[in-house]
């Protein structure tokens, strides 16, 4: 593979020196100027060139002090009351042009010394955006290099979710698929994993403990599995979930039943193992928002009282607090309320995707919508307007049109990036994450985990049907 490596080294402006599997940065400015070329190879090619591009980005990032890290210890400190409840960590799902979007994040964060933020991608998004964990991590780490960021980078597997239909058909096969994805993600530098088996909560049972029993036991099983494969010196941050987004608001009895059973099961599975750092609950929102016939988003009422009350209950168990999903399409004046409600983390995704579609050229958008008409007409519900149909399905075109997105003119991509950056400026201010580097540096000790070249040069994992999974 010497030829492929030489080609990638040349694309990087000969800014790197490679001896065996050791990578040294010999010209940082040249690397920063050319890192986008490695990102395109990572995203659009296959084989050895793709693998080397991803490996070199990961290794170069480590040498420059850009370190994939776990947020576990910061969250544990928050649970102990050693970190003020003055900020809510944004967990940002990047679907389209993830490299450009991540650069906007780092530019915005750099101006306010924000470090308590997470980049994440859900199991469902990995499928329809055609971004396996190594590609997603490459996008984030390359963006950090491009923008001159230094420090820990928190990359998270969001909604690593059990499909209820596949679990009903073949439980062990579905669980093994999720184990394999978890191992793949950790190898790529995802040291934060949100385990979501809340899809298996059975609310038809009369007792709350019985309703949460399978959710608790499987969450404990996956946590024990993660503890068995996490890199030496790293405690992966693991989140649990008790209520599926879009259903009934979560309650204190549900949270306590889940946590009591989870802790007991984890000690059986792996005595002494570290447990959860946070808990996701349901407070009234839905993923992507509710679309009205004209394409606008309906106002959604969030129960901030539920967030506050359950965050306090979560801290009884040493957790950082509760996590809010499905929030990016809420009105701007809602976001500082997450801080007031003591939520430790809020997940943001759809609005950034909406901004992408709002800024691309009309002809490109029409091409995407024609693709949706041809390939996803079966998802159109009776009485649904075009605006509703395209809004709900256009995420499924992100992966199919990835190459065309990368080929957009530079001025178009710059415009999208500027719009994203302005949005991040607003969100980071409202979520109170300015000057959070001080807390991250106090409690998070980044561990340099060298990548395994075999994880980058092997065959890429095939995609899967993710139509029944949450974002």
Q: Output the CATH homologous superfamily of the largest domain.
A: Aldolase class I
CATH architecture of the largest domain: Alpha-Beta Barrel
Q: Percent range for helical residues?
A: 40-55%
- Enumerate how many helices there are, as a single number: 20
Q: How many discrete structural domains?
A: 3
**SS-based structural class?**
alpha/beta
And the CATH topology of the largest domain?
TIM Barrel
Nearest-angstrom radius of gyration?
A: 21 Å
Strand content: 5-15%
Key phrases:
3 domains, TIM Barrel, 8-stranded parallel barrel, 11 strands, alpha/beta, single chain, 471 residues
Question: What this model shows, in words?
Answer:
With 471 residues, the chain is an alpha/beta fold. It has three domains: 2-63, no CATH class; 67-356 and 408-446, TIM Barrel (Alpha-Beta Barrel); 361-397, no CATH class. Helices cover 51% and strands 11% of the residues. It has an eight-stranded parallel beta barrel with strand order 4-5-6-7-8-9-10-11, surrounded by seven helices. Helix 1 (2-11) crosses helix 3 (47-63). The model has no long low-confidence stretch (mean pLDDT 93).
